[in-house]
Description:
The complex is a heterodimer. By secondary structure, chain A is of the alpha/beta class. In chain A, 51% of the residues lie in helices and 15% in strands. Chain A has a six-stranded parallel sheet, sandwiched between helices. In chain A, strands 7-6-8-9-10-14 form a six-stranded mixed sheet, with helices on both faces. Chain A has a two-stranded antiparallel sheet with strand order 12-13. In chain A, helix 12 (301-312) links the parallel strand 8 and strand 9 (323-328). In chain A, helix 5 runs parallel beside helix 6. The longest helix of chain A is centred in the first third of the chain and has 30 residues, at 3-32. Chain B is mainly alpha-helical. Chain B has one domain (2-310): ABC transporter involved in vitamin B12 uptake, BtuC. Chain B has 14 helices and four strands. Chain B has helices at residues 2-23, 28-54, 62-80, 83-105, 112-135, 165-183, 185-195, 197-202, 207-234, 245-256, 260-281, 286-289, 292-295, 298-310; strands spanning 140-141, 152-156, 159-163, 237-238. In chain B, a hairpin with a 2-residue loop joins strand 2 and strand 3 (159-163). In chain B, helix 3 (62-80) crosses helix 9 (207-234), helix 6 (165-183) packs antiparallel against helix 11 and helix 11 packs antiparallel against helix 14 (298-310). Chain B is globular and about 65 Å long. The interface between A and B is large, with 73 and 62 residues.
Amino acid sequence: MSKAPTRTTLLAVVITAIVAVAATAAVMSAAVRPGVVTTTVTVTLPTTVTLVATPATTPATTPPPVARFKIAVVSDIGGRGDLSFNDMAFKGADEAAHDFGVGVVEFISKTEADYIPNLRTAAMDPEIKLIVGVGFLLSEALAEVAMEFPDKFFAGIDTYAQEIIKEKYPDKYPLPNLLDIKFEEHKGSALVGALGCLLAIHYNYPHIGAVLGIEIPVLWKFEIGYKWGCNWAVEWFKRNFPSEYEAKSKTPGNILAVDPKSRVLWTYTGTFSDITKGYLAAKEMYAKGAIAVYNIAGPLGLGINQAVEEIVRPKGLTMGPPFWIGVDANQDWINPGFVVASMMKRVDKGVYYATYLVLTGKFREVALRYKGVLTLGIGTVIEGVPMEGISVSTLADLNEFIEMGINAEKILGKPVLPMPPEQIRERVKAMRDAVPSWIWAAVAELERLIREGKVEVPLPLTEADVEYWRGILG
Amino acid sequence: MRSYLKLLVAVASLAALLVALSFVGLNPLTLLDSALLAMTPLALAALGEVMNEKAGVTNIGLDGILLVSATVAVFGAEELGGGYGGIAVGVAVGALIGLVHGLLSTYARASQIVSGIGINIFAYGFVPYFLMAAWGFPGIRVPPKEVLAPPRALEIAGFSFKVSEFTVLAIVLAPFFHYVLYRTPLGLRVRACGENPEALDVAGVGVYRIRIALSTLGGALAGLGGSFMSLVWFGGVVKEISAGRGFIALACVVASGLEPLLALGFAFLFGFSEALAYAVAVTPRVKEVVPYHLVLTIPYLVTLAVVAVFVGRRRFPRALGQPYIKE
């Protein structure tokens, strides 16, 4: 009993050590290959990537307006790599870094317990002036820490921190160093809803679909806006093409012949990470005849994309239908020819504008004037500066995102994009050209009407609102 | 044998259910197709786990193995220029993790639970790091389509039904493992290893060697499951691709009472009911009658119901999870 265990334990330790060393060596050798080195030693690589990639909106020679400071971006538990929400926030920080010469510090929250420590650590750094919290989950933490550090600026993406202040400390409301940045997702979703519905009318499909993540209030705006947009498109078609409307509404299998409450197939999946659920939901939607499925669940887009791939691969198609619709970022490049458009929620602009307000010294003024809420949407102008935050992707936007990929490829020395950039542009352009121009014109008309305030997209804020609209739109 | 009779009943009722569903507008082929895809990674991981638990090694790090293998398989596929090469890399890495776990639970006499948790924690940290290190992009990697190993498409009644050789492998492995366990001397040794390692040791058979080999096999199969998810099924990897499926595989193992055929059945059942849940959830106007939250709990309710039926019939190896200490 005395010698044997010692020997075996020793043996086990040695073997484990060998395996560990071997594993580390394998990883390191992967890392030491040319070009990859930088990525392993620095976590801030994406900063570099986007820094080079950002189209210079401000000439690079412009000196920074005021003394340099730093901004901190605190992610929610989703973290980076969703190709949408969180990544866009970091992109905005990188653009601010490039244009204004500020430094960027990233804080990744692993659990919800990390929010307050992360925000507090950021606020205690004397060089950091602005702390951006990404995601509505950070609202309470943001409100608390913003109270503790009145001389620092706080901005939250999709947060409702000022409402918490109003409830808990009514005498402090609105807190002048805190801005909740919100977006008019309902308006953008209405645009892609109209686009999808018109596609279904044109190509004789019975449905459009939407795969949603966790049912949080922000997602209600996407859901109802999308359904409302579809409804608007039907009305528009009826007005502009009365005879075709008559014919198509008698064609079995056309969306016009479908009960108005069944036009949009939708479901929440209760997750922003399990791509299997996105796949299963989207697959059933396409099987039921959805022409396009709107990805409202971040990374679940990979599952939706796979559901499309399975339909188009055996047929050898190079463009849809069927399509899917991207969200938050421009996702048109992920599978060129099959992502008809993306509803771009410019979280990056939110971070960028918040930095701009700190730089120009207008942060407190704006926070007080707008009761601490900055709503970016279609046609938004704040203090004479246009601050739009919602748009449907265009070919020009595509270039901005392809450039990011090209620069990443230069740094890494291996392909990042799914195909050569020229081919991506060609495929996306070919797909857009194949969609009848009257459809794009109709979407543009809806955008103009929204901008001019001539139509109002419903904005559901409470559960009762959502139930009301579901009762009408299905 | 009675449990297998029940399995037969289950299969028959499934067929009846499929026919019934086709009358309410749900395509049984789509459901079956989804179910088989969803089943494969669960079944592979569960079958491997059944085998190593029979030998007395519990590995709760299945989720971590799925995740790590899914990621390195994509890396391997791109480096080697082919999907099957990538799958081989994924399997090898899974086997390596299984081997380390086996060594720790035998020679090092480590707590298997702690080692398993360690594998999971390692995976959740390693994968986001590896994605950055290998591709310079956080959280996601979509490789070129040429390096994937997509399933074959079979045209059945105008629907292209997808069959992967790995799905077939999972289905074949279940009866094979059953045969090995109960009809061969090797199987007897494996079971003895979990029931009464002292007796095996006295008989002159190396307990550690069998446990390590089976743990490695379990890791390799979980690795195959992970590689299947990224290279065969989704054509890409995200940092949470396993999304807790390793734990669902463990649930299949426990529910099956370490019977390979039942483990396969539970994996299929879960995959099928998940597909069914979404098919029902996206059907127009269903939500007006049943809240979607309730519909989406179908897979868990079904699994729970089936487990309830099988309760009382499970018996686990006596020495499961305990390090064997030679006298």
